[in-house]
Amino acid sequence: MLLTGSLLAEERRDEVLYQVSTIDALLAGVYDSAASLGDLLKQGDFGIGTFDALDGELIALDGVVYQAASDGQIRRMPAETGTPFMAVTWFAPDQVFAFSDPVDFEAFKAQLEQRFPSRNMIYAIKAEARFAQIRYRSVPRQQKPYAPLAEVTREQLLFEQRDIDGTLVGFWCPSFVEGINVPGFHLHFLSADRAHGGHVLDFSMVHGSVELDDTSGWEIALPTISGYLDANLDSDRSAELHAVERGGPRQQD
Question: How many helices (H) and strands (E) does the chain have?
């Protein structure tokens, strides 16, 4: 594992999760851009995150970055767009397997964990699937002074789709990443027609194909912006993260 304070060279390096900023900084309300999408796409073609001012959920798939906005729209984003938090890797699967029978989100996670060679590694996860139902969220663009993420997600919009094809994009991280990334599963969804997507909260999968990419390297670019440098990141924010990942009460059809 290598922790670094600046964006590295452009050469492709497989088996590395590269991220800008930390999840605790995002929880604390550090939403100003710390890097551009172009910077991050030099480090990987697959990943998740958010945008400057927390303007929606970010999905990077096959080198293309999509914004799942709070109005329910999916937009392809240009390289100059900023991000306060994003994690990417060059996706190259080490395992490929199928779910031929229906599974819910909890069963899906349990079966994936059984296939992990170790619980002390990071895994990039891509699943192309048919969903009987999937529930996901997005968050609206924020205005300064920024509220902490746990407050913002109380007003998030929840979306639900039924009988839909799409791709899950995300990561599983060990418990020791707490404060830096999200321990456990962190998945975003993008529909096959590129019309729907967001941060995954729950689903019922009919069938699907799953690819796992074992990732042994981890590199972090810590922001040099004032919002990050002046933030109080000494607190234990694990309870806030749990609330944020669980989702809020508002629903959008």
Answer: 6, 16
